[in-house]
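ligand=heme C
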Amino acid sequence: MVKYLSCLAVLLLFIIVACNSNNYRDEEYVAIPDFNFPKSTKFKEKLSEYKIFEGSPADLLPSKDFHLLELSSTLFTDYSQKQRLVKLPVGTKMKKLTDGSIEFPNGTILTKTFFYYNDDRDQSLGKKIIETRLEIKENDVWNIATYIWNKEQTEATLETNGLETKISWISENGTMRSTNYQVPTENQCMTCHQSNSKLTPLGPTLRNLNRIVSRHSSNLNQIEYLQSVGLLNEFDVNQIDYIVDYKNTEESLTDRSRAYLDMNCAHCHNPKGWDKSTQRPFDFRYETPLEQTGILRKKEKVVNTMIRGKMPFIGTTMLDEEGIELLLEFTESL
Ligand code: HEC
Ligand code: HEC
């Protein structure tokens, strides 16, 4: 009954937000300063110069130097699909650091390609690729940029000023969805991708990679797989923690909610994030004990800022309905 009522409440709120959708995201809500983080590489004009894909680029087939990275917990971006790859310079490895983070060698390239299937129920009906985001480490400094794909899906071009592009697709349950997808500006990239006022990758932590993946038609632990192909240094996988896939309803409500907050909110709301967000009394990192996250004191506010489309305030234009339902159920259970 409680669950039924809360579903009704969410539905009502969605209707209110939908009727108000023109000013759903208030540009003036939080002003972003110019970060101007130092740069140590000049990005090439065309994505093809990085030789990320082989064959027809639209097939997103990684070339032999690029390797798939799969995350357990991911960032919601308007229901887009994402492919994540890593390339390391020949003869180098990623290394485990004691705090559970990964040290990447200079020359590393991390990529994330955003696309939509025309119909989520049948991938053979084709897809539309929108952008490929890159992070490159040189001289111990990370650099960040995005490339927008052309209509023909043959090439993508460097774009630092962002772009809005209309996209529609059929979702898993057969309904037509559409949005004015927003490619972030370089400065918006930096808002999320920072730690101690330095640019940083966010997804590939050891615990977020510590999961079962399918490679060469067998299922294996991704950490052990990366070690076996020489991309990651050797250590016992049992030494490290793991984070759950929040979409997997077989996992516990607490683990799923904490995993969601970790990848969707904690890149800003952690003690080393952008100072404007750390001024708020939240620390949404997975490892932070619940009592210290700030959630218990502001249960309703946490979910309400999402329902009203205020948080996360950049990187999306649509509400994450499933994410909101998850956090609503979680905060009501506390
Ligand atoms: C709203 C916050 C946010 C914004 C804005 C954002 N990112 Fe990210 N990005 C993330 C998070 C969180 C991840 C890891 C989770 C995932 O991939 O689902 C990530 C992952 C990535 C990755 C894969 C490697 C990694 O760090 O995990 C690349 C490359 C990347 N982003 C580049 C960019 C670029 C370029 C821009 C700007 C055009 C940008 N991002 C804007 C939050 C953001
Ligand atoms: C791009 C960085 C960023 C991301 C991502 C982000 N926040 Fe925030 N958040 C902020 C900033 C900055 C503020 C302070 C806004 C202000 O000064 O009014 C804030 C404020 C808040 C507040 C307090 C609002 C108020 O009125 O007091 C809540 C609650 C909150 N965020 C929750 C979340 C949740 C939940 C997520 C993930 C779904 C999230 N945030 C993601 C930057 C971020």
